[in-house]
Every structure is written in C-alpha cells, then in structure tokens.
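Board notes, transcribed. Complex of a protein with adenosine-5'-triphosphate.
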Amino acid sequence: MTQTTNGENGSQTSIIQVRNLENRFGSHVVHQQLDLDLFRGEILGVVGGSGTGKSVLLRSIVGLVKPSGGDIRVFGKDLLALSARQRSLTEQRFGVLFQKGALFTSLNLQENIALPLIEHRKLPRPEAEHLARMKLALTGLSVKAATQYPSELSGGMIKRAALARALALDPEVLFLDEPTAGLDPIGAGAFDQLIVTLRNALGLTVFLVTHDLDTLYNSCDRVAVLSQKKVLVADRLQKVVKNPDPWIQEYFLGPRGRAASYAVQTNKALQAPYSQQESS
Ligand SMILES: Nc1ncnc2c1ncn2[C@@H]1O[C@H](COP(=O)(O)OP(=O)(O)OP(=O)(O)O)[C@@H](O)[C@H]1O
C-alpha cells in the first residue's frame, strides 16, 4: 500500500518511502537513520554539501546501490524484497537522468532513445524510432537532432536528449541527478521550466538532486536537505530556510542564496497583474 497523509495542501500520497536507510562503503558511513517520502505529483529537490550522499540516495531508490540497512518502499512494495522480474517491472516505472547524460556515443539520438523501447516494449525499430522522435520533440529538440550523435551536440542538447531517453518508457517518476550542472544560466533556466512543464503535462513525480539554488526556488515544491548522514529537513522552501542548521543558513542565506531568492521575488512581482502591482 502507498501511504496517504494529510499535509498543508490537502492529502498527499507517498509513493516512495525511505525508512531508517543505511549506506556504508567499508568503514565510511554515508547514510544512517535516513527517512524520506516522495509524494505523488511533486517536484522534490534534494540538496546538501558535496559528498553528503545525494547521488547514493538516488541510486539506492532506483536499485543501483544495495543499501546496508533500512527499508525502501516503492509504489507500496518493499524494493529489496522484489524478485528480479518484479524489480525490472518496477524500475520501468522510473526514468533516470544521470549526471553525465550517459548516452551511447556510437548511436545517434533517435537510436539512443529507441533502445529501451526495443528492449523492454519489444517494438520494431521503425516504431521505436518514431516514438523516439516524439520524445525528442517533447524535450524541445528538432527533427534534425534525431540523427545527430552525442559528440555533435551542445551540453544543453545532451541534457535534453538524456531527458528524452529518461522519458522513453513513459515513467511515473523521474529521477534527475544535477540536471542543470554545466549549463549556462539561460540554458539552466529553460531546463528548469521544461521540468515543470513536463511534470504538469505528464503528471510526473520528480526527484531532483541539485546544487542549483535557482532550480530550488523556481521548480521545487519541497526541498530535502541531506546533512549529518540523514535528511535533516524536508519541507517547503520557505520553511526550510528558517531551520537554524549552520549549513542551511549559509547555503540559503549566503550571498548566492539571497540572490536566487531576490531574483524569484523580482520575477514574481514583474509577472503580477498591473493592478496587483499598483496596490502593493
Ligand atoms: N561505489 C562507491 N564506493 C565507495 N564510496 C562511494 C561509492 N559511491 C559513493 N561513494 C562515496 O559516498 C559519498 C557520497 O557520494 P555521493 O556521490 O552520493 O555524494 P553527493 O552528495 O552526490 O556529492 P556531489 O554533490 O559532490 O555530487 C562520497 O564520499 C563518495 O565517495
């Protein structure tokens, strides 16, 4: 069973529940007593200092890292207790965008995106490549890009292509590991907007690891902060920034955090109807 809780914004269905998670590599403990929920339809931003285990957490949930302890329930099922077949079916409900895009360099974009459709949906190549071109269009890439190879593309186009591949099997949950890293601010802003648009249009749930303050302010419904081997706080940003933890204070209320917050407020003011601006 998935769990439904009553939050501030009405009832929320938790489709992923991480409880008491422990991850260690030798004597290096990365996570201990880590709890986290992912609610259906939300964009959850996961943030924390370098090496706090954001990627390891993502990889644990999608089944690429076997935790040393604790429980991960996905769509109501204990991930670690699933048979190989059930696990593969569950994982097909996930789309993952890795930090470096992880496209096959010897395949063009439509071939890259067709691959999971051929492998998991057993589609003939022409149909799979037709669907691949539709996924590329969904992420804003042109028909011309479909026959290009990763080496011919800009960083922003690679991210979009990797996103198209993550969307290939029509996932319910999208996992994004630092999607705007390496993009210029305009490209990063456009990518943030794309994620929100896709979430709204496709009804996705998004787990997004990021260092990008603009992404947190512009795209995320809730923010989870990893610190001291666990999730210190997971809440709406307005509440998170009030947490007295020194890292949170430095990160959100230092110069870059203040600039991101100011930019969002200015944007909102500029976008407000004229009458509202006059009366404020
Ligand atoms: N396969 C592994 N073997 C050993 N140690 C690992 C392995 N994977 C991750 N680690 C260690 O776990 C810790 C957390 O790594 P992780 O990549 O999750 O951090 P992160 O919070 O995503 O960092 P960053 O923000 O710099 O990307 C690091 O100290 C890393 O060296």
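The radius of gyration is 19 Å. The pocket of adenosine-5'-triphosphate is lined by residues 25, 30, 48, 50-56 (CB under 6 Å).
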